[in-house]
Amino acid sequence: MQSLARTLFGRLLDAPYLLLSLTSLFWAGNIVIGRYAAGSIPPVAIAFIRWSAVFLILIGIAWPFLKRDWPEVRKHLGIMLLLSLLGIALYNTLAYWGLQYTEAVNALLITTTHPLMVALASFVLYRHRLNAWQTLGLFISLVGVTIVIMRGNFSAFQGIRFNIGDIVFFTAQAVYASYTALLFKRPKIHQLSFLAFTVGAGALMLVPVYVADVARGNTFVFDLKTALILAYIVIFPTLLANMFFNRGNELVGPNRAAPFYYLIPVFGSLLAILFLGERLELFHAAGYACVLAGILIGTRGRTT
Fold first, then answer.
1. Rg, the chain, Cα only
2. Is there a contact between 199 and 51 (Cβ–Cβ < 8 Å)?
3. How far is CA 22 from the centre of its chain?
4. Which end of the chain offers a freer environment for a tag, N or C, measured as fewer CB atoms within 10 Å?
5. What value does the mean pLDDT take over residues 122-133?
């Protein structure tokens, strides 16, 4: 049974598009539950507990690989620490902070800017350009996401008002776009070595921030609700999603992985239908079709 599980998991890690789709599903749930946690758990506490718990879960499994790869980690310590800062410590804290103030529809809309920011970061860092297929795929996916978020009513744009939460959440997306592009420079080490180091280093970076936050009185009550919120965040959008996302980027590159980010608002809408009782409308089908078409078109191209 264990052998079968290892075989299936090994095959999963060689299926980049499935990995990236699952990542988007888990992150969609993270946005929904992050908004649900607003007022119950401070954003710094969520980020610190999230990464600290994952590190404790991961280190026992990853230690042999990390020990073996340590010479390479030490050789590339600068980029490893930068990735830890951007992808672990800074991005998550900013995202949860923004979700304390912004509305869910605004957060979902802002996530659609991520692929374009990845393309911009890749151009700035490496002069990578999107080819025609990738550009077309991104545009079609963006149209689909807009249809879903606006519920088929484009006049709804007139009612959107951006606040400090929107600005902070947008900044978080820019930070994560930089992290995504910089993954191209990560050392060639085992996936578990990379994840264990960046998670551990990111958690350490959050220690003084968390201590200062608690000193200001930002605490929470640990009850069943907060326990379930933290359990979901630790397992799915943190442990599994980051492993899947890093592996997917490793296999196909940041520009071909970026269109899958458009699945986050699609999955977010589906979660709302399933758990909030909303009905499936025609605009949902139209929007989802555009998103899937955009991903299929965008993944045909190669980065130049």
1. 19
2. yes
3. 11
4. N
5. 77
Q: Where along the chain do its domains lie?
A: 17-129+162-260
17 vs 258: CA distance, rounded Å: 11
State how far the Cα of 51 lies from the Cα of 223, in Å rounded to an integer: 20
pTM above 0.85, yes or no: no
